[in-house]
Amino acid sequence: MSAAALTKGGNAPLDAGLSAVLLSAHCDSGHVLDVSGLLLGADGKVRSDADFIFYNAPSSADGSLTWSAEGITARLDAIPAEIDRIAITVSADEAPFREVSGLRIVVSSAGTDLLRFDVPASADETAVLLGELYRRGGDWKFRAVGQGWASGLAGLATDFGITVDDDPAPAAAPPAAAVVPAQRGALDLEKKVAAQAPQLLNLVKAARISLEKRSLADETARVALVLDVSASMAELFSTGAVQEFAERALALALQWDDDGEVDVFTVGAAARGLGAMGLANARDFLGIAGMTLEAGTNWGSTMVAVRQHYFGTSGPRTAPAAPEAPVYVLFVTDGGTTDPQQTVEQLVASSYEPLFWQMLIVGTVEMQVRSVLVANFGPNSPNAAIAAHIPEEQKLTIARQAVEGSMATIRSIDTVPGRYLDNHGFVAAPTPAAMPDEALYDALLERYAVWLKQARTQGLVTG
């Protein structure tokens, strides 16, 4: 069922049983919208500046109104009795809203859109009151407003009772502490992504949400991406799946890594460093890098290259390394390693370093079986000359056994004994479409969050 549409000045009741609603702002012009909420009394004013909820002040004191990358969430059953209404406002980095096309606010609950208001085009206004939740007879209603302020957030804030210090400069912006975040953080990042690589914008938002869930949004880390370039990955490369996974890794790296890039390595017959993937080259990075598929999947060799790159050594360790910023390695592969002994040695040695290996196992079983068949019995395989004399059922059995053996290797790697810390996790996502962005980020961060806490306690990670 589609959301009910409201026109300017229109209102609609919310179901009495709703406990929380999300109010989100959207547009079609690519602008990054800065949405905020205000708890207002019967006089139309805030009780104090603490009733203004935005990125740098993401929650009211009682938690009834909260900000996230998705929008403003109102817990209707927890709004204080003295609050008469909740105003939802938006700015677009002080851009006039005549440049912001398709502006709208959507009211939703539990993932279902309930109401929608398409805001009429504005002129010179740089801040807009999109709509408001208000009480009537003990129930909550939503009103579509669409009122703009040419004086921007400063004028809007003053009208609602927010304290804005005087500033003699013309067209002064409100002080950072009251209205504009001192460090725009996620919003600045979103604007940068929207300008340079808009295809990543939704990924960046999804990654941020997952990071916030685990209190990881303000962490820093160096991020590496390892891509399996063995022959069995051919179908995933040709369909663009590997590129999609690479972009998901970059969206995560952008949140943590100060240089806004992810260091890329390959795992195949030998390890290669492909340089850095960033906003400027994200769309065609794999084409530029010149992927060449190889025979073999030597995890250990790539682990050597990664450790050498970040720590200047790849030798054995039996004591904790000096604390540094953590290294998060997203290791994209479709099967097990062909050098298990070296892999185990490297995994154990790196457990004494601030380094976490997150395996992402890609490709369906059927896809992996097809790839193994091509790699072992195809026209360019080592067995090409005798392939025609091997029954098809026997080939299929060999391929299935190889895939099962790869997964067994992965499971065994995840339980390697003798490590200082458990520095490894694995998640299966056969194709990009098999797991929504936020769900994938949740899975990729679950084990890392536990490891980071332990690594900090054990003195491996600074801060």
Write the layout of secondary structure elements.
Elements: E1 4-6, E2 11-13, E3 20-26, E4 34-40, E5 52-53, E6 65-68, E7 71-75, E8 85-91, E9 104-109, E10 112-118, E11 127-136, E12 139-149, H1 152-159, H2 186-196, H3 201-213, E13 222-228, H4 234-238, H5 241-256, E14 262-267, E15 272-277, H6 285-289, H7 299-311, E16 327-333, H8 340-350, E17 355-361, H9 365-377, H10 384-387, H11 392-413, E18 424-428, H12 437-457
Parallel strand pairs: 1-10, 13-14, 13-16, 16-17, 17-18
Antiparallel strand pairs: 2-12, 3-7, 3-9, 4-5, 4-8, 6-7, 8-11, 9-10, 11-12, 14-15
Helix pairs in contact: 2-3, 3-5, 3-12, 7-8, 9-11
Give your account of this protein's structure:
- The protein has about 475 residues and is an alpha/beta fold.
- The chain folds into 2 domains: about 5-185, sav2460 like domains (Lipoxygenase-1), CATH 2.60.60.30; about 200-455, Rossmann fold (3-Layer(aba) Sandwich), CATH 3.40.50.
- Helices cover about 30% and strands about 25% of the residues.
- The chain has 12 helices and 18 strands.
- Strands 1-10-9-3-7-6 form a 6-stranded mixed sheet, with no helix packed on it. It has a 6-stranded antiparallel sheet with strand order 2-12-11-8-4-5. A 6-stranded mixed sheet has the order 15-14-13-16-17-18, sandwiched between helices.
- Helix 3 (about 200-215) packs across helix 12, helix 7 packs parallel to helix 8 (about 340-350) and helix 9 (about 365-375) packs across helix 11.
- The protein is elongated, with a radius of gyration of 26 Å.
- It starts with a strand and ends in a 6-residue tail after the last helix.
